[in-house]
Amino acid sequence: MKKLSNRSARGSCVIWPCTFVLIFLAAQVCGQSQWYKGNTHAHTVLCGHADSSPEAVAKWYHDHGYHFLILSEHNIYIDPSEVDLPKDARFDFILIPGEEITGSRNVHSTAVNVPRLIDWKFDSERVSDIIRDHLERSHQAGGEHILNHPTYKYAVTAEDMKGVPELRIFELHNAHPNTIRHTLDVDEGYVTTEDMWDDMLTAGMTVYGVSSDDTHTLKEFHIEASNPGRGWVMVNSAELTPDSITESLKSGDFYATSGVILSRDKKMGGVVEVAVDVDATLAELHSPYVLGHRLEEAAPGFLIEFVGATGRVLDHVHGSNGSYEAGREDLYVRSRISYTRRFGDGYEQFFAWTQPAFTDDRAESGPAR
Ligand SMILES: [Zn+2]
Ligand SMILES: [Zn+2]
Predict the structure, then answer these.
(1) Which end of the chain is more exposed for a tag (fewer CB within 10 A), N or C?
(2) How many angstroms is it from 149 CA to the middle of ligand 1?
(3) Residue 182 has what pLDDT?
């Protein structure tokens, strides 16, 4: 195992000043991948407990610089072709069809890029069976599957998810007020989603973590409202199409964030390299919509932690870039990048979580860039 911390990490691609349109078109024509900002989980008035129309929700994400959105309604299929986008909509914004399969025993899943409504009525005493039913129905419809907010009502445990080894994507961070803190903090006797992730990864699963808003409320913004702009994914994709974005999610070619933006997220074998785009991060965190993880005591600034099997922190860097070379004995390495700043009498933290690079038999899976 060799450490490569604090090595300079700069993007290898230089883009000369140009209009964004030309850059976008050139990337599309050349098949060059780029980063797209998206939210995989949002609700509308159609569910009866959210406050805005599908058009208004789509417009919010469009107007705030997102590239894609899934209107994931509870057991209702919203056909994107029937949602009117703003007349002057950017050409680089799409809706990906989906649904929140709102199943038995508080097991919820997002069916991603499916062409029709997915049935949600299956029940079993075994939570694993319900998760598998959602996953299989999503796949049978030609789409992908995300297991949502396992800590919602503490409905899903790591053991439940390990009972479905084919589970590929779950919500590591869900910004709904009922679940947001559970990425890192839980009530006594329960397990955080991040600890669940390491449990699954250590057990040999190839599973990736997304961050989402689970938006319900656009008409009032406060800490107890499930507002947009608090959790999203940055997806590296060859094209901005539902199929291409879905393929990148499926292959782990993305990172999850609550506000930290990366200029580098590179994996080659067991080597991971990450660098923060400091300007882009500070611009995101200037937004009134972000919501940090509140702490009484913390050290301000950037911290990069490289996490391996059982959740052990293998190394860390106080700074905005670093790298780590994992050995086969580490099984995998992933990075958690935090930015801490003062908030009131205490502090608040924002994160980016990159997907694992595997060093065991799973090394062939996942992106290598
Ligand atoms: Zn849900
Ligand atoms: Zn939801």
Answers:
(1) C
(2) 7
(3) 83
Beta bridge partners of 111: 99, 145
For ligand 1, the distance from its centroid to the CA atom of residue 97, given in whole angstroms, is 17
Mind listing the pLDDT tens digit for each residue in 121-177?
Answer: 999 999 999 999 999 999 999 999 999 999 999 999 999 999 999 999 999 999 998
Protein residues within 5 Å, CB atom, of ion ligand 1: 108, 148
Residues whose CB falls within 8 Å of the CB of residue 282, separated by 6 or more in sequence, listed in order: none
DSSP 364: G
Nearest CA to 146 among 75, 104, 207? Answer: 207
Task: For residue 326, give Cα distances in angstroms to 197, 207, 254, 284, 307.
Answer: 18, 18, 20, 31, 10
Distance from the alpha carbon of residue 67 to the mean position of ligand 1, in angstroms: 22
Q: How far is the CA of 128 from the centre of ligand 2 (A)?
A: 20
- Name the fold adopted by 35-257: TIM Barrel (3.20.20)
Pairing of β 68-71 and β 34-42:
parallel
At residue 168, the 3 state secondary structure works out as: coil
Which ligand sits closest to the CA of 156?
1
Alpha helices in 47-178 (DSSP H): 54-63, 127-140, 158-162
| Residue ranges per structural domain of the chain | 35-257, 266-369
- Helix or strand (DSSP H, E) at 209: strand 208-212
Q: Look-up: residue for tokens 């025993």?
A: 105
From the CA of 149, which ligand is nearest?
1
Closest to 293 in 3D by CA, of 192, 159, 198, 152: 192
User: To which residue do tokens 């900002």 refer?
Assistant: 37
- Residue linked to tokens 């990159």: 354
Interval between CA 110 and ligand 2 midpoint (Å) = 8
Cα 237 to middle of ligand 1, angstroms: 26
